[in-house]
From TrEMBL:
Residues 231-329 form the HTH araC/xylS-type domain. InterPro entries: Class_I_gatase-like, DJ-1/PfpI, Homeodomain-like_sf, HTH_AraC, INH-QAR. It comes from the Bacteria. SMART domains: HTH_ARAC. NCBIfam families: PRK09393.1. PANTHER family: ARAC-FAMILY TRANSCRIPTIONAL REGULATOR, HTH-TYPE TRANSCRIPTIONAL REGULATOR RV1931C. PROSITE patterns: HTH_ARAC_FAMILY_2. This is Transcriptional regulator FtrA. Keywords: Transcription, Transcription regulation.
Length: 335
């Protein structure tokens, strides 16, 4: 591994069952959402080795296709590309009231039946819902579409407060930039935290954002001096994982009442201090499992858990794998 901070380390990722990612293109394409998919899955990343994703764009209707911003789109092919895809992404949609072509819903259902994963960004959830595959499953979309989505698809368990939801074979993300969070989550799921961290670094964004859409709903902007108070505290929590500071002590350090501190902390992170700390501990544990050979007890201690049993409990609840299984799947030595 190089020590030059300006060069990303070569990871040589292990293969996954199907690394073909196909993004849908349609007339009126949401340029930003499509750009997220192309950036995360379609950009050449030689540091990842030969097993990185293979990317293509599939037009769902005859051209010419227009995209927001006065652009024209030429796709790699049509919906026949979905037959070989391991992951199909719907980057937004024409609108909440725009019908989804039956041919597209049939193609998506067929892809799902043979094992392909389906993902949506923002209003793309309307397309996945139209297939019926989201019925009685949890899903999310942009908070501004929540009412229209629930009205059109009452059988879907809509959760507009979160950034993304992973239902295994079907994944949905909230508004626009939350697609980056979902993309990094998929990378983390396929190739591990180190690969996701590498991509996040190139995107100049955190590998995981705590909280949910609640922090982005219209609300008064926090005063600058309050934000300045909280930034050092947030970083302190993230870097001192073996400590469990009380809300009272944190509020005192910020010079705020406990009630005001909790409100400002939620505005800044979308969650509570204890949940923020728990997520930071799990992220650190995943990194240690991938990059080292320390025992599970040592990883638990270094990441702030009082015991290996507690680490196993929270780790499985968060990632669906035990720490040992995570290490076997994602460790550099295994790769």
């Amino acid at each position: 591994m190089t020590t030059n901070e300006n060069i990303l380390p070569f990871l040589d990722l292990p293969p996954i069952p199907n690394n073909r990612v196909v993004a849908l293109a349609y007339d009126g394409l949401c340029t930003f959402e499509f750009g997220i998919v192309a950036e995360i899955f379609g950009l050449s990343r030689p540091e990842m080795g030969p097993n990185w994703y293979r990317f293509a764009t599939a037009a769902i209707e005859p051209g010419p296709l227009r995209a927001q911003g006065g652009l024209s789109v030429t796709a790699n092919g049509g919906t026949e590309l979905l037959a070989d895809a391991g992951l199909i992404v719907v980057p937004g949609w024409k609108g909440a009231e725009s019908p989804v072509p039956p041919e597209l819903t049939q193609a998506l259902r067929a892809a799902h039946a043979r094992g392909a994963r389906l993902a949506s960004i923002c209003s793309g959830a309307f397309v996945l819902a139209a297939t019926g595959l989201l019925d009685h499953r949890a899903a999310t979309t942009h908070w501004r579409y929540a009412e229209a989505f629930s009205r059109r698809h009452p059988n879907v368990d809509l959760r507009p407060e979160v950034l993304y939801i992973d239902e295994g074979q079907i994944l949905t993300s909230a508004g626009s930039a939350a697609g980056m969070d979902l993309g990094l989550h998929i990378i983390r799921r396929d190739f591990g935290a180190e690969a996701a961290n590498s991509v996040a670094r190139r995107l100049v964004m955190p590998a995981h954002r705590e909280g949910g859409q609640a922090q982005f709903l219209p609300r008064p902007v926090p005063r600058n001096h309050e934000a300045a108070r909280l930034s050092p505290l947030i970083e302190s929590i993230r870097t001192n994982l073996t400590e469990t500071p009380s809300v009272k002590s944190l509020a005192t350090r910020a010079g705020l009442s406990e009630r005001t501190f909790l409100r400002r902390f939620n505005e800044a992170t979308g969650t509570t201090p204890i949940r923020f700390l728990a997520e930071a501990r799990l992220t650190r544990a995943a990194e240690l499992l991938e990059s080292g050979t320390d025992s599970i007890d040592a990883v638990a201690e270094a990441s702030g858990f009082s015991s290996a049993a507690l680490l196993r409990h929270h780790f499985h609840a968060r990632y669906g794998l035990s720490p040992s299984a995570w290490r076997r799947r994602f460790s550099r030595s295994s790769a």
